[in-house]
Write a sequence for this structure.
């Protein structure tokens, strides 16, 4: 019986878009199942028939019709204003503009113009009417009314009776004078000089300087803001790693500290498969603990950990980009979000438990200079320091103390307090340790945890 | 994007109309062939192609060059075809094509003039009928994949959906096509026989 999953594999093979893993899977399927072979053959035949459909030619004048429509575009786009219409076999008749002197567009402004002129007339006539009621030289005929707002009236001392008295504001809470904002002067815009008939245009008096006081409210004391730097954890969907900016952001994030990277997934078993494919395409040798895989298949909700210290930030970004590419080939997708934070003390402790030794997350990588210096400082009469002992162990394990190949190890991450994991005897872990060489200067040790997500 | 296309677009934006004419000449046949498989009507396909080129001309300044020009053009054409199909309910079959001739291509063996009497095999006719009955979504991915030979990434770019969606859509399209062809397929194993 062919399941839907296998049917999808077959149709994807007809599309010619299988990954290496899927191709092997398909080969096994076709070699062992006659029904699958028959279905594959039929789908392939359908696809070939579609491909063999005759290609139909467009009408002979299609290009001319396109270019004619382009030439008839009005208004002509600004950057294409140099285009000249190409003479066609059927020239389009010019619209008879003289027959319609007024278009609908040109008639639309007439009512607006009439309304505006009416308003202007009413305003002017009322101004003239009320202006004529009082003699020109009388600025305060009516003591109950302020002087006229004219050029001459602006300097009338009567205005002082009408304007608010400038007094110091009395705040409800005593505020030290130093905390009050200084007096401000409202600047007046200097308009270009326009000949104006005196008394014909009403002008407001010159602005006076006032203390800022919003409706009598108490003035706020001067405040200072302190700059606080917050490091926001890196949290992006795995699919975002196809974007260059996201990869760069990730590289900058993990360059600061050894990182713990959580990969949330719907299917941890499948996720491990895809991770292996991505690592392989990167040339990273991933040692996978057999017991961990067995446990994962029995208990799909478990988490696994991949530890590597031989990849740079760019390598890791590329790895996740390839992981996304592998994930994009399957449906539904396996991976959700990727979350990166600096390794905490708890993470470092758990890593030590899982690996069975302290990998030295925060140790400086060995460089040629530090190697030479340490060799010069060796004194056979002195006892070896821990660091030197490490160097000797490493050089024995790797041969010459040179940087190891790109390698990683996958182990279970279900760390229980007070319980040592039986992974120290894992042959895959031993193999990883054997391959482990000196850390490259730009390599970043990371703990990658593949764990089930909520999605 | 090819340097040649890039140069033609730059020339067109600089005001050289002939440059766009060259782009039309280059891509009209391919676009028409895809459009006619979507709308089934030569006149509608010609309208789709015209509208697509016109929209492309008017939007040329917004083309960023991060994808192939033809992919971008395809996207415009497919959106135009969708709009057209929504307006037209009945699809006229290819059999109603008039006697008007097509262009004389450089390679006559590659293109068939729709106006000439086609000695289409019965198999091809059944395939065409099945294509007409496919849902629009399934039809467009099959046209792009099997007829135009595009990859998942290009199809995803044209239709603006994720690659995973393209894969599953093609899967369902092939199943639907198989179901439509099965009654006429003597080699097909029916469900009752399995």
């Amino acid at each position: 019986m062919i399941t839907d999953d296998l049917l999808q594999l077959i149709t994807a093979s007809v599309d010619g878009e299988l990954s290496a893993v899927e191709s092997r899977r398909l080969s096994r399927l076709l070699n062992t199942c006659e029904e699958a072979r028959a279905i594959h053959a039929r789908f392939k035949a359908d696809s070939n028939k579609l491909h063999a459909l005759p290609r139909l030619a467009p009408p002979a004048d299609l290009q001319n019709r396109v270019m004619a429509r382009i030439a008839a575009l009005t208004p002509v786009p600004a950057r294409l204003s140099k285009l000249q219409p190409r003479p066609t076999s059927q020239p389009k008749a010019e619209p008879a503009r003289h027959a319609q002197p007024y278009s609908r567009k040109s008639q639309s402004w007439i009512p607006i113009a009439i309304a505006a002129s009416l308003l202007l007339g009413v305003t002017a006539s009322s101004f003239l009417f009320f202006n004529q009621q009082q003699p020109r030289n009388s600025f305060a005929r009516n003591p109950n009314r302020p002087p006229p707002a004219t050029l001459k009236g602006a300097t009338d001392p009567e205005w002082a009776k009408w304007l608010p008295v400038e007094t110091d504001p009395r705040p409800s809470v005593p505020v030290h004078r130093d905390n009050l904002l200084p007096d401000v002067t409202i600047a007046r815009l200097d308009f270009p000089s326009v000949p104006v008939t005196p008394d014909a245009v009403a002008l407001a008096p010159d602005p006076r300087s006032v203390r800022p006081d919003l409706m009598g409210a108490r003035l706020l004391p001067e405040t200072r803001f302190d700059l606080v730097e917050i490091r926001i954890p890196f949290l992006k969907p795995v699919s975002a790693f196809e974007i260059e900016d996201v990869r760069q952001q990730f590289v900058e994030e993990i360059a600061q500290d050894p990182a713990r990277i959580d990969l949330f997934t719907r299917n941890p078993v499948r996720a491990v498969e895809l991770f292996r494919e991505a690592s392989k395409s990167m040339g990273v040798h991933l040692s996978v603990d057999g017991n961990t895989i067995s446990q994962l298949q029995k208990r799909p909700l478990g988490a696994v950990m991949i530890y590597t210290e031989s990849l740079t930030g760019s390598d890791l970004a590329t790895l996740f980009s390839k992981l996304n590419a592998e994930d994009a080939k399957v449906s539904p997708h396996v991976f959700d979000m990727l979350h990166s934070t600096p390794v905490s003390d708890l993470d470092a402790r758990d890593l030590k438990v899982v690996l069975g030794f302290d990998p030295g997350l925060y140790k400086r990588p060995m460089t040629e200079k530090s190697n030479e210096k340490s060799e010069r400082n060796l004194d056979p009469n002195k006892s070896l320091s821990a660091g030197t002992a490490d160097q000797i162990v490493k050089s024995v394990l790797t041969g010459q103390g040179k940087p190891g190949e790109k390698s990683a190890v996958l182990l279970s991450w279900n760390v229980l307090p007070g319980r040592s994991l039986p992974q120290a005897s894992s042959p895959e872990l031993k193999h990883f340790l054997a391959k482990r060489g000196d850390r490259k200067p730009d390599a970043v040790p990371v703990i990658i945890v593949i764990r089930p997500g909520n999605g | 994007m090819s340097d040649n296309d890039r140069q033609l677009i730059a020339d067109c934006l600089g005001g050289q109309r002939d440059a766009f004419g060259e782009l039309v000449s280059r891509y009209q046949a391919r676009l028409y062939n895809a459009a006619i498989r979507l709308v089934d009507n030569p006149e509608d396909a010609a309208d789709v192609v015209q509208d697509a080129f016109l929209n492309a001309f008017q939007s040329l300044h917004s083309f960023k060059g991060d994808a192939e020009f033809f992919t971008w053009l395809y996207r415009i054409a497919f959106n135009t075809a969708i709009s057209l199909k929504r307006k037209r309910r009945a699809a006229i079959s290819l059999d109603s094509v008039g006697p008007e001739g097509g262009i004389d291509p450089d390679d006559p063996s590659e293109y068939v003039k729709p106006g000439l009497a086609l000695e289409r095999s019965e198999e091809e006719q059944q395939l065409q009928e099945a294509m007409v009955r496919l849902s629009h979504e399934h039809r467009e991915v099959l046209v792009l994949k099997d007829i135009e030979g595009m990859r998942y990434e290009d199809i995803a770019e044209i239709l603006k959906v994720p690659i995973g969606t393209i894969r599953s859509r093609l899967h369902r399209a092939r199943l639907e096509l198989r179901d439509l062809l099965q009654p006429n397929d003597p080699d097909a194993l029916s469900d009752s026989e399995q």
